[in-house]
Amino acid sequence: MLNRLGLRLRIFLFFCLLAAGGIAIAAGGLYAGFGRAGIPEAMGGFIFAGITIGFLWLGLVVGVWLLFDENVARPIDRLAAGMRARAHAGVQGGLDIEAARYLGDLAPAAAAMAGQLSQSTQDATAAVARATQQLEADRARLSALLTEVPVAMVLVGPTHRIVLYDGQAAAVLAQIAHPRLGASIFDYFDRSALMQAHGRFAKAGKDIAATVAGADGQQSYDLRLSPISGAPGYMLTIDDAHATISPEAARPLIYDFDLLDTVADLGTDIASMPLGDLAFVVFDTETTGLLPHKDDVVQIGAVRVLGGRIIDGEEIDVLVDPGRPIPPASTKVHGISDAMVKNAPDFITAGRQFHRFCTDAVIVAHNAPFDMAFMHRDAEKMGVEWPHPVLDTVLLSAVIFGAGETHTLDALCERLDITIPDHLRHTALGDARATAEVLCKLLPMLTARGMTTFGEVIAETRRHGRLLEDLN
Question: What are phi and psi of 426, to 5 degrees?
Answer without folding.
Answer: 65, 30
